[in-house]
């Protein structure tokens, strides 16, 4: 979960003001993955009543829905709605939140693996840290968004517990953990993600985002796309998780939603960080950062690197303009095992997504089409040694091949 803080005076007007005046003084929060999360220009204020917490979010329009869910104490799901669990059930599922059931910790609190007898299923249980800076509002938004959403590339919320002071979320358990762990947290000797798996993960994550942007009613801006929120199931099937920062997208003629700037440093679109104007293209930028991480194996922000390489996008941008540099960008852990054309095309998509101007970034549906094609072109290192500039089989032209020239780059090789 990303860092969330509630400002009591956060009417829509004050939200706007806060983002405009104070975007350069982020608060930092480090989770167990070593991620630095920042929230920009947001006052900390804890102990907010639930009603207050709901008041200012567009998703609170659907709060009635939540009340229906909370009211259904029979523990049965109605349609896609999340069911309620008692605290005793969740404590039993995790051996009273035993340390060996602990799987990780984010801004929201600790996550435990458990087995819930009632539904005969392994689950991940996220316990809201009552002393943390994230809050009830995020809990509500998470429940609402995931209750309304249903897609194979979104993690399923099975239920929740809102008993007394306790706030817990119950998700399907994702046995392979997060993409972050596979890309950046590999223990010695563990398997490096191969090229095909990386493209499969990128394509699946894009489909999850497309569902939020294009299929959900009302459409939703995710606001928290990053590697640690892409969870992996059997066969590295990716699902997006953590919807506490989600916002209903602009409606009517509006192109943006004005809001406080929140999210994770390194993934946040520069236009959104500067103006507080959130658009669907803010998510597209974050997606581009994730795609760059998949290609390069580098972190969005890495303070252990020389200054000029610490910010992945800033490091990559000048290299997009020089085709000779493309092979230097790819993750060295792949040991040259990648398709040259595939690399160019993946870089072209990433380059378009992280463009400074939001209107120059593609819409998610075009990204899905391009990545679906890329992921379907299975790379076989035995028959297709990567580092040569051998041409691949004849293939439809990707828009991305053309568009990399828009950012001043050389045109990548194509049939
Ligand atoms: N549904 C899940 N299944 C398996 N592991 C999970 C699940 N949800 C979260 N986790 C693990 O718990 C860690 C903490 O998750 P989270 O609280 O969402 O923080 P963050 O997204 O900042 O890492 C994740 O990095 C992941 O490894
Ligand atoms: Mg998460």
UniProtKB/TrEMBL annotation:
<keyword id="KW-0067">ATP-binding</keyword>
<dbReference type="InterPro" id="IPR011009">
    <property type="entry name" value="Kinase-like_dom_sf"/>
</dbReference>
<dbReference type="GO" id="GO:0005886">
    <property type="term" value="C:plasma membrane"/>
</dbReference>
<feature type="region of interest" description="Disordered">
    <location>
        <begin position="378"/>
        <end position="415"/>
    </location>
</feature>
<feature type="region of interest" description="Disordered">
    <location>
        <begin position="9"/>
        <end position="34"/>
    </location>
</feature>
<dbReference type="GO" id="GO:0090404">
    <property type="term" value="C:pollen tube tip"/>
</dbReference>
<keyword id="KW-0723">Serine/threonine-protein kinase</keyword>
<keyword id="KW-1003">Cell membrane</keyword>
<feature type="binding site">
    <location>
        <position position="126"/>
    </location>
    <ligand>
        <name>ATP</name>
    </ligand>
</feature>
<dbReference type="GO" id="GO:0010183">
    <property type="term" value="P:pollen tube guidance"/>
</dbReference>
<comment type="similarity">
    <text>Belongs to the protein kinase superfamily. Ser/Thr protein kinase family.</text>
</comment>
<keyword id="KW-0418">Kinase</keyword>
<feature type="domain" description="Protein kinase">
    <location>
        <begin position="97"/>
        <end position="375"/>
    </location>
</feature>
<feature type="compositionally biased region" description="Polar residues">
    <location>
        <begin position="20"/>
        <end position="34"/>
    </location>
</feature>
<keyword id="KW-0547">Nucleotide-binding</keyword>
<dbReference type="InterPro" id="IPR008271">
    <property type="entry name" value="Ser/Thr_kinase_AS"/>
</dbReference>
<dbReference type="InterPro" id="IPR000719">
    <property type="entry name" value="Prot_kinase_dom"/>
</dbReference>
<keyword id="KW-0472">Membrane</keyword>
<keyword id="KW-0808">Transferase</keyword>
<protein>
    <submittedName>
        <fullName>Serine/threonine-protein kinase RLCKVII</fullName>
    </submittedName>
</protein>
<dbReference type="GO" id="GO:0004674">
    <property type="term" value="F:protein serine/threonine kinase activity"/>
</dbReference>
<dbReference type="InterPro" id="IPR001245">
    <property type="entry name" value="Ser-Thr/Tyr_kinase_cat_dom"/>
</dbReference>
<dbReference type="InterPro" id="IPR017441">
    <property type="entry name" value="Protein_kinase_ATP_BS"/>
</dbReference>
<keyword id="KW-0449">Lipoprotein</keyword>
<dbReference type="GO" id="GO:0005524">
    <property type="term" value="F:ATP binding"/>
</dbReference>
<dbReference type="Pfam" id="PF07714">
    <property type="entry name" value="PK_Tyr_Ser-Thr"/>
</dbReference>
